[in-house]
Design a protein that fits this description.
Distance between the termini: 103 Å
Largest sheet: 4 strands, mixed
Number of strands: 26
Strand order of the largest sheet: 13-17-16-15
Number of domains: 3
CATH architecture of the largest domain: Alpha/alpha barrel
Structural class: alpha+beta
Number of helices: 16
Length: 522
């Protein structure tokens, strides 16, 4: 069986990341990311009441490296008071105001215990070099680990709880509970429905298990779910209510992929987040073009997580140098330079396996035929079209056309793919007319009717010929369509069936239509 890190070791690695950003080599990419984190944290601090931050927000700013020293004493004093009042438990209390159906303002009080709050507090105390198991005579760790998991109604609480757990079994118990109660394969995390945001948080909760190699089945599934909420400019929340790309969903998709250690995907969302929603003047992230604190908190959480994985995994989509291009039956190698940390790594290029056309047979229409080309490598991946060009020849007229695929960049070689253009159905339109022959003239000699007077012919492809199919024997039809009415035919109306044939040509098939011509003798 493949060995993976123990969850305890993974958590130690995870916790060692907190507050250590400044120890990283400050490449231009890391420096830029650090500035974005700092600016977002400053924006949140400047737009918040720092004396009454939630435990989660206090940890968020701490994790961002924001200087919280001025608020530390107040934080610890309030925490001690809460524990003292509630017999060693952390209880969140408050009052909410609302308007009833008559427009009158009313209030209600709330009081609850949240395992995510314990996680935030434990992480914060550790960052202060304080022991959560012995804080002012209280064992917060014991209260945390004895928490009744059946009371958890908000799956967002699991993230900080799992991150704060220091025992393999308890962390695994939390992860198992999250998956069993709130995750559906193929749909994601369910919290008032399924969304990109929910599933991004799910992956963040499983971050320590991604390090250890546990739950890969669910991590891979969740990554697939996140991609289903992706458009050209970023991510959107859900398929029912918020279907437009926005900062929160783009950030939380980035959070999810960062937590899954997929640096390439995380970097893609990072670029969209910065390009489309970042206000570099204020450090905020925007909603409908306006700075938004809530969006900035989600973005900050995601930026921190992205920076946390930098150096452990690398963005490898940026090609620095191709050392050996891949071809059919030949693997290749390129050097990639991570745009964030600057790491240079050798990346394997799978050999090419197949080149196919979207269609191999067309009917002539007079326009150029350009079947789409799909290239796949030996691992089944579709090769980006930027690595090849397609040139079409002899692709208008009937015959064998060719698509020449020429590779470049990561790949080398060329390949000719043939496809057929077959003859189209003849467009012949033929109708019989009514022609009149004077009886007095017919008494003296044979009378003729021109093809133009006897037939209405249009859109014929190829030479047109005529042949009598049935009718009075005194009426004959020449190959050129001229009708002869022989002397002696009595007065009356005579119907003659004639086969009209268009011979076709290089691009059209032959066609025959039977029409009826009426000859009136009067």
């Amino acid at each position: 069986m493949k060995k993976v890190l123990s969850l305890t070791l993974a958590l130690v690695m995870l916790l060692s990341c907190f507050g250590t950003f400044t120890a990283q080599a400050e490449t231009s990419g890391v420096s830029q990311l650090s500035n974005q984190i700092s600016n977002a944290a400053n924006y949140i601090a400047n737009n918040s009441d720092m004396s009454s931050l939630s435990y989660g927000d206090y940890w968020l700013l701490t994790d961002a490296g924001y200087d919280m020293s001025a608020y530390k004493a107040n934080y610890l004093e309030n925490l001690k008071a809460n524990l003292t009042k509630n017999d060693g438990k952390i209880i969140i209390e408050g009052t909410e105001w609302y308007q009833d159906e008559n427009g009158d303002w009313k209030s209600y009080s709330y009081s609850y215990e949240d395992i995510g709050v314990y996680g935030a507090v434990i992480l914060t105390l550790r960052s202060m070099k304080l022991d959560p198991a012995d804080f002012e005579g209280f064992d917060i760790t014991a209260a945390f680990e004895s928490f009744d998991l059946t009371t958890i109604s908000n799956p967002y609480s699991y993230r900080l709880a799992i991150w704060a757990a220091v025992q393999d079994e308890f962390a695994k118990t939390l992860a198992d509970d999250l998956i069993a109660r709130f995750y559906t394969k193929g749909s994601g995390m369910n919290y008032y429905g399924y969304s990109c945001d929910n599933t991004g948080h799910f992956l963040a909760a499983l971050y320590p298990t991604a390090i250890s190699g546990l739950y890969n089945e669910y991590i891979d599934d969740a990554c697939g779910v996140l991609k289903s909420y992706t458009k050209e400019d970023g991510a959107y929340a859900d398929n029912n209510y918020v279907t437009t790309v926005n900062a929160d969903s783009t950030a939380l998709a980035m959070l999810g992929f960062s937590s899954a250690l997929d640096a390439n995907s995380a970097y893609w969302y990072y670029q969209k987040l910065i390009d489309n929603f970042y206000n570099s003047e204020t450090g905020a992230f925007t909603v409908n073009g306006k700075d938004d604190t809530y969006a900035t908190k989600d973005a900050l959480l995601s930026l921190i997580q992205f920076k946390r994985i930098v150096g452990k995994v690398h963005v490898t989509t940026d090609i620095w140098q191709v050392t050996k291009a891949a071809g059919f039956n030949h693997n290749g190698v390129y050097l990639s330079k991570c745009p964030i940390c600057g790491n240079i790594s050798a990346e394997y290029i799978p050999a090419l396996k197949s080149v196919t056309l979207s269609a191999t047979s067309y009917t002539y229409s007079g326009s150029a035929k350009t079947p789409a080309v799909t290239v796949k490598d030996v691992e089944g991946n579709v090769v980006n079209s930027k690595y090849y060009t397609v040139k079409y020849t002899n692709n208008i007229k009937v015959g064998t056309a060719t698509a020449t695929v020429t590779f470049s960049g990561l790949y080398f070689g060329s390949l000719n793919l043939n496809f057929r253009i077959t003859k189209a159905a003849n467009t012949l339109v033929a109708k019989g007319k009514t022609a009149t022959v004077k009886f007095a003239s017919l008494k003296k000699k044979n009378q003729t009717v021109t093809a133009k007077k006897a037939f209405a012919i249009s859109k014929a492809q190829g030479a047109v010929t005529y042949k009598k199919a049935s009718g009075n024997k005194k009426i004959t039809v020449a190959k050129n369509g001229k009708i002869t009415v022989k002397k002696g035919l009595k007065k009356g109306a005579y119907k003659v069936k004639v086969k009209v044939t268009a011979a076709g040509n290089a691009n059209y098939k032959p066609a025959t239509k039977t029409v009826t011509v009426t000859i009136k003798v009067k």
